[in-house]
Amino acid sequence: TAPRCGSRSFSRSCSCPPWAVPAPTARATRNTAARSPRIPRGKEPLPGTLFLRVISRCAYRITRAVSLYVFGSALQSLPRQWVLRGHSHWSYEDLKHWSTDYSDCGGTKQSPINVDTAQATFSPDLRPIQLSGYSLPANKQLKLKNNGHTVVLELPESLALTGGYAQQYRAVQLHLHWGSPLGPGSEHTINGRRFPAEIHVVHYNTKYDSFTEAMVHPDGLAVLGAFLEVGHGENQYYHEILKHLFEIQEVGQETLVPGFNIAGLLPANLKLYFHYNGSLTTPPCYQTVKWTIFNQTMLLSHNQMSMLVSSLRTDDDKLLQSNYRPVQNLHGRRVLASFQTTPLVKHAPGSDDSATAEGHSSSFHAGDVLAVLFGVLFAVTALAFLLYIYKHRSQNTRLDSPTKSKVIYTAASTENTA
Ligand SMILES: *[C@@H]1O[C@H](CO)[C@@H](O)[C@H](O)[C@H]1NC(C)=O
Ligand SMILES: *[C@@H]1O[C@H](CO)[C@@H](O)[C@H](O)[C@H]1NC(C)=O
Ligand SMILES: [Zn+2]
Q1: Residue 56 in contact with residue 26, Cβ under 8 Å?
Q2: Residue pair 199/187 in contact by the 8 Å Cβ criterion
Q3: Contact by Cβ (8 Å): 173, 155
Q4: Is the pTM here over 0.70, yes or no?
Q5: Which cofactors does it use (predicted)?
């Protein structure tokens, strides 16, 4: 029989992430069939607000099961949002129920997490991330869609991760998480700080045939994450996506985007990053993701950030906002850093996030300058002090001896009480 999405256990049978992209070519038909939801397990809580949703979900599933039986593969030509609705029933207001429907969401290796930079282990073995095939020609059209949870850009299989990981990974898609005009919306946080938004570029291990197969294996996925902040000036790469958002305001809508350099959506510095073992941050929350969180952030204009936060709508015709999952418990997991996270300049005046984010070379440079500056200051102070002592002593030698002994006595007493 055709392998189902997450066929390894029953709890995984209903559970493809909403942004799962069926692999192109021959696998596509198989995967589309595999994405059909099954009859619910009846473990659903039925408080008032959920009642209608559950009813409509059951109705949907029964209708779908019957029509699948009657019409067979003809079903695959149904509008895309019908298929999407089948497994988009979870929501960010509904976080507590995720682990009821998807057992992995209650696991001990969940994402996102807070990265405590002081607790991160410096690991010199973490090599710079290498991206290949990320620069796409304009005649290569990419599908961009609103799936009700985020905006997804499908990526061709030619994009690959060729460095930084022990194995090779192929890209499938990228998507974003954001907040609202009232607050930031990154998923990961750094030392408790949430950033305005976050990009995730999803890859799967080339030793598996497809994303859906890879995502159930512990070494299946690699996701690159970077934070988006507000700075001066438009970001031309993000513009390539943001300018199309108005075309896909409604759930299920999609449009085509001409190819561009996808690497431009990620930081220029791919050497500085955090690494840990975690999960998908949306149901089914499979704990199969090797995460890379870049230390350098991306800058978007204020306008661009507003566009991201206020363009798309959800199923219930609200603005799609604050689509992030809260940080999850580490449960003893280690977070590695490809760089020394506690440089000497950390608490020096004038050093801020943007300065340290520029990386090793610049912070060492700043460190050198500061060291010289403080060295010179110290030397000048010491010299002034010595001159002062010398002057004082030569003054004292000119005075009579009783005064001199009195001066010495005063100095000693001050020292004792200090
Ligand atoms: C992640 O899991 C793999 C396989 O269990 C393990 O070898 C590796 O050390 C883990 N990485 C971290 C950062 O804990
Ligand atoms: C980058 O690393 C520095 C040094 O550990 C840290 O202070 C800063 O918060 C980090 N920023 C991000 C976005 O990771
Ligand atoms: Zn994500």
Answers
A1: no
A2: no
A3: yes
A4: no
A5: Zn(2+)
